[in-house]
From TrEMBL:
Any coiled-coil regions, as ranges: none
Name recorded for this polypeptide: Protein kinase domain-containing protein
Cross-referenced InterPro entries: GAF-like_dom_sf, Kinase-like_dom_sf, PAS-like_dom_sf, Prot_kinase_dom, Protein_kinase_ATP_BS, Ser-Thr/Tyr_kinase_cat_dom, Ser/Thr_Kinases-Pseudokinases
Keyword annotations from UniProtKB, A to Z: ATP-binding, Nucleotide-binding
Domain Protein kinase: 451-739
Chain intervals with Polar residues compositional bias: 409-420
Organism ancestry: Eukaryota, Viridiplantae, Chlorophyta, core chlorophytes, Chlorodendrophyceae
Length: 740
C-alpha cells in the first residue's frame, strides 16, 4: 500500500501470519546517495493487524525465496526461545566483535543475526541505525540454512545472483550490493543465525578473510552458549548423535577456555579483541587488555625466545608458547594460530565456496562472480582493504591443562596397503612447546612431503577438504580420519577407484598417503591409534554445480525468471554424461551423483568459461549388473532412485535417476525436494511419483530426455553412453536454432 502523509510515503508489506508488517517511512525527496539513513526509517510491528477498516495485505510474491517456514529447524526455535537470546540486542561482548569486523572488512554494516520463525533479530548491529529486527521473508541470512553442511554464504554482487532478484533490500533502498555471512553453528550443529558484513557496493575478499569471519562467528556462538548447564546438556547430545551416526567428530566447541586476537602488524602485537574467558585467565578485565600490546602484558617462558615466535608468525605458521603475565605472574600456555585457521572449533567444519581465491594463490583472481571488469589478480589487490590475514592477525588460544590434542606422527608413514595390524607402536607424545599445524588436525605424512594446507573448503561425514599447495600446484586435500579398519579400507577403496578413472570430465586424483595418529578425548580417555588417509585431487576453482545453478549461471541473465541458457545447460550435462560414462565403463557405480558432487573448473578454451567434472567417490563401489545394498549407506536422499529405496537394488541405472534430478535442478534453479522431509521424499519416490516435471518453457526434447532418466522401471532408463549421444544432438540443434 502507498499513502502520502504530509510529504512522506508509507509502504506496508505483510509477509507472514501473524502479519509481519514492514513500515518504511521517509521523505519522498530523500537523497539516494545516503543509504545509511535508510535504516533510521525502518520499524516493525509483530502483532496481527485486526483493524476492521484496513484489510491485511496478502503476502508478497517472492518467487526467488524458499519457503523458510517449511524448512524451519525446530531445535533452533527451541534453543533460541529457551535461552532468551533475542531479548537483549545491544551487548558489549558482541559489540566488540561487530565493530572489529566493520573495521577489518571496511564495510558500513556488521551484525550478529539470530533467526526466529518470523523475523531476524540483530544483536549489536553496526550501521543499521536503531533497527533491531528485519522480516524473515526478505533476509539474506536465511541462505545459511540451505546447505546440508554449514557453509559461508557470499554474495559479492547481489544484483548478479538470481536468488536475490526480488529482494527489496537489493532492488531498492538501501541497495545492499555485498553480503557475506558465516553461520552461527551451535553445539550439535544447530544454526542459530549469522555473523554478517554488508556494503552498498560490490566487494571481493580472499578465502582467508572469509575464514576470519567464520572464526568470529564461532566466538559469538561461544558467547551465546555461555550457560554451562545448557552447554553440557547440548554437548552430551552432540556426542551421542555423532556416535549414533558414525561421524568423525562431534560438533562441539573446543576453544572455550579463552581467546584473544592480536594485530601482529603493530608494535608489541596490539590486542584488538579478547573474550571474557581470556581476561579471566589473565586476571584482568577485558577493558584493560584491548588496545594494549600483548608483549607489554606477557612474556614468553620456558626458554622460548621472542625471535623464534616472530619467525614462525612471519610465514603464517602456528606455535604453542608458554607465557607469564607481567602484572599478576599467572602462567599458562597459549597456541598462536593465524586468524584464518580452522583450529578454533575443529568439530564445526564450516565450508566456503571453492571459487574464492586464496591470498597465497599467485594465479588467483578476486571477483570471479562479481561481473565483467571487476576481476583483480590476488597479488595486485589493495591490501589495505583485503588484508593478508595469515601474517597480520593471530588468535591466542588458551590451552587447557592436561588436555592433549589430535596430532600426526610424521615418522609413521605407511603404504596405501597398510592395515591396522601392520602399524608400529605409537611413539611418545611430543613436547607442547613446538610449531603446530595452522590448518587441520594433522601434519601431512612423509609420502606427501611438501604439502602445505590452506583454508578449509568443506566437510562430509567422514572427512574434510582443504585447499592446499603441493609441488607448486593448487590441489584439494581430502583428509579422512579412520576410526575403524572397515572405514579405513572403505576410504582406501575410494581413492583407488578415483585414481583408476582418468577422464577430462572426472576430477583427477593426484596422490594418496596414509599416516598414523594419536587422539585423546577431553577427559583424558585415550583412543587407539587410528589411520589418517590423505587423498590429493585437482582443485576446481569455480565451485559446485548446485551453487552455480542457484546463482543463475545457467540462465540467459541472472534473474530467477530468466529462461535457461540451453546451450550452457546442454554442454554441462554432456560433460557430466561423458564423465559418468567413463566411470561406468570401469564397472563403478557412483551412488552419490548430485549437484554438490559435480565441480566446475575454469577453462579458457570453452565458450562457457568452465567445464564440469564428476567428483567424490566416497560411496562408489564396483558393481556389475545388479546388487543388493543397504540403502541407508548410499547417496543423498533427494537423488536416490525408487528401486534402491524400495527394494535395495543397486545398479548403474540409479546414477541415471540422479542425473535426471540434476537435469530438473538446472532448469528450475532450485535444489530438489529442499522443503520436504527425508520421510516425505521416501514416501513420494517409493510410491512411484518421484519423477520430476521441468518448467513448461524448456524444449520438448529436454523434457523427453529427463522423463526417460526418471522412469520407475530402472531397466528402461538410458545409459550414459546413450545420453551423451542425445546431448551431442541437442547441442547441434540448439546451435542451429541460435544461428538461424
Amino acid at each position: 500500500k502507498k499513502r502520502h502523509i504530509f510529504g512522506f510515503r508509507r509502504h506496508t508489506l505483510s509477509c507472514s501470519s501473524p502479519a509481519l508488517r514492514l513500515d518504511l517511512e521517509g521523505p519522498q525527496s530523500r537523497a539516494s546517495s545516503a543509504p545509511q539513513s535508510y535504516w533510521s526509517f525502518l520499524s516493525f510491528t509483530m502483532a496481527p493487524n485486526n483493524s476492521a477498516s484496513e484489510a491485511v495485505a496478502a503476502p508478497p510474491t517472492m518467487e526467488a525465496n524458499y519457503d523458510w517456514l517449511a524448512m524451519e529447524d525446530a531445535e533452533r526455535v527451541k534453543r533460541v526461545d529457551m535461552a532468551g537470546w533475542v531479548e537483549a540486542t545491544t551487548e558489549p561482548r558482541f559489540s566488540y566483535i561487530t565493530n572489529l569486523l566493520q573495521e577489518l572488512f571496511q564495510v558500513p554494516i556488521s551484525t550478529v543475526s539470530l533467526i526466529t520463525p518470523d523475523r531476524i533479530c540483530l544483536k549489536a548491529p553496526v550501521g543499521f541505525g536503531d533497527t533491531e529486527q528485519v522480516p524473515r521473508c526478505f533476509a539474506m541470512c536465511n541462505f545459511v540454512c540451505v546447505s546440508p553442511k554449514p557453509e559461508a554464504v557470499v554474495f559479492e554482487n547481489t544484483r548478479l545472483d538470481a536468488r536475490l532478484a526480488h529482494n527489496p533490500f537489493v532492488k531498492g533502498d538501501p541497495g545492499l550490493l555485498f553480503y557475506a555471512a558465516a553461520p552461527l553453528v551451535g553445539t550439535g550443529g544447530t544454526r542459530y543465525g549469522t555473523m554478517c558484513v554488508c556494503d552498498y557496493k560490490p566487494r571481493s575478499f580472499t578465502a582467508e578473510m572469509y575464514r576470519l569471519l567464520i572464526n568470529f562467528a564461532e566466538l559469538a556462538v561461544q558467547e551465546l552458549e555461555s550457560d554451562q548447564k545448557m552447554l553440557e546438556r547440548w554437548t552430551k547430545d552432540a556426542i551421542a548423535s555423532a556416535r549414533l551416526n558414525n561421524e568423525m567428530q562431534a560438533c562441539v566447541s573446543t576453544a572455550i577456555e579463552g581467546v584473544a586476537m592480536i594485530d601482529a602488524r603493530r608494535p608489541a602485537w596490539e590486542m584488538v579483541y579478547t573474550n571474557t574467558r581470556f581476561s579471566a585467565t589473565c586476571g584482568e578485565p577485558v577493558e584493560d587488555l584491548v588496545g594494549k600490546g600483548f608483549w607489554h602484558l606477557f612474556k614468553p617462558i620456558d626458554g622460548t625466545k621472542f625471535d623464534d615466535i616472530t619467525a614462525t608468525t612471519a610465514v603464517g605458521g602456528s606455535r604453542v608458547v608458554g607465557i607469564e603475565s607481567c602484572k599478576t605472574g599467572a602462567q599458562f600456555t597459549i597456541a598462536l594460530y593465524p586468524a584464518s585457521t580452522d583450529r578454533l572449533a575443529p568439530g564445526k567444519a564450516t565450508g566456503i565456496p571453492s571459487w574464492l581465491p586464496s591470498q597465497n594463490d599467485p594465479t588467483g583472481k578476486l571477483g570471479v562472480v562479481s561481473g565483467e571488469g571487476m576481476q583483480t589478480d590476488v597479488s595486485a589487490r589493495d591490501k589495505s582493504a583485503c588484508i593478508d590475514v595469515e601474517k597480520c592477525f593471530y588468535f591466542a588460544v588458551v590451552q587447557p591443562v592436561g588436555r592433549k590434542r589430535l596430532r600426526s606422527d610424521s615418522n609413521a608413514g605407511q603404504s596405501d596397503s597398510s592395515t591396522f595390524k601392520d602399524l608400529p607402536p605409537r611413539p611418545d607424545s611430543v613436547s607442547s612447546r613446538e610449531s603446530v599445524s595452522s590448518y587441520g588436525d594433522f601434519s601431512p605424512p612423509q609420502s606427501l612431503d611438501g604439502l602445505q594446507l590452506g583454508p578449509l573448503v568443506g566437510s562430509g561425514s567422514f572427512g574434510k577438504v582443504y585447499r592446499a599447495s603441493w609441488h607448486g600446484a593448487i590441489v584439494a586435500a581430502k583428509i579422512v580420519r579412520c576410526l575403524s579398519e572397515e572405514l579405513f579400507q572403505w576410504s582406501v577403496d575410494e581413492g583407488r577407484l578415483a585414481m583408476s578413472v582418468v577422464h577430462p570430465n572426472v576430477v583427477k586424483t593426484v596422490q594418496m598417503g596414509v599416516d598414523l595418529a594419536e587422539c585423546y578425548f577431553k577427559d583424558g580417555v585415550e583412543l587407539d591409534a587410528v589411520h589418517v588417509l590423505w587423498i590429493l585431487q585437482e582443485y576446481c576453482d569455480r565451485g559446485t554445480l548446485v551453487d552455480a545453478v542457484e546463482r543463475g549461471c545457467m540462465r540467459t541473465h541472472r534473474h530467477i525468471h530468466a529462461p535457461p541458457d540451453m546451450m550452457a545447460v546442454y554442454r554441462t550435462l554432456k560433460d557430466i554424461a561423458d564423465g559418468m560414462a567413463a566411470i561406468h565403463a570401469k564397472g563403478i557405480v557412483h551412488c552419490d551423483l548430485n549437484g554438490r558432487n559435480v565441480m566446475l573448473t575454469a577453462s579458457d578454451s570453452d565458450p562457457r568459461g568452465y567445464v564440469a567434472k564428476v567428483a567424490d567417490f566416497g560411496l562408489a563401489r564396483m558393481c556389475h549388473g545388479e546388487e543388493m545394498a543397504p540403502c541407508k549407506t548410499f547417496g543423498t536422499i533427494s537423488h536416490l532412485p525408487p528401486e534402491l529405496l524400495k527394494d535395495q537394488i543397486l545398479s548403474a541405472a540409479g546414477d541415471v535417476w540422479a542425473f535426471g534430478v540434476i537435469m530438473w535442478e538446472m532448469v528450475s534453479g532450485y535444489r530438489a525436494h529442499l522443503e520436504k522431509s527425508k520421510e516425505g521424499i521416501e514416501v513420494l519416490v517409493m510410491s512411484g511419483k518421484g519423477a520430476m516435471t521441468p518448467p513448461a518453457h524448456v524444449p520438448q526434447a529436454y523434457k523427453d530426455i529427463l522423463a526417460t532418466c526418471m522412469l520407475n522401471d530402472h531397466k528402461a532408463r538410458p545409459t550414459f553412453e546413450e545420453l551423451r549421444g542425445m546431448f551431442e544432438l541437442a547441442i547441434l540443434e540448439e546451435g542451429s536454432e541460435t544461428f538461424s
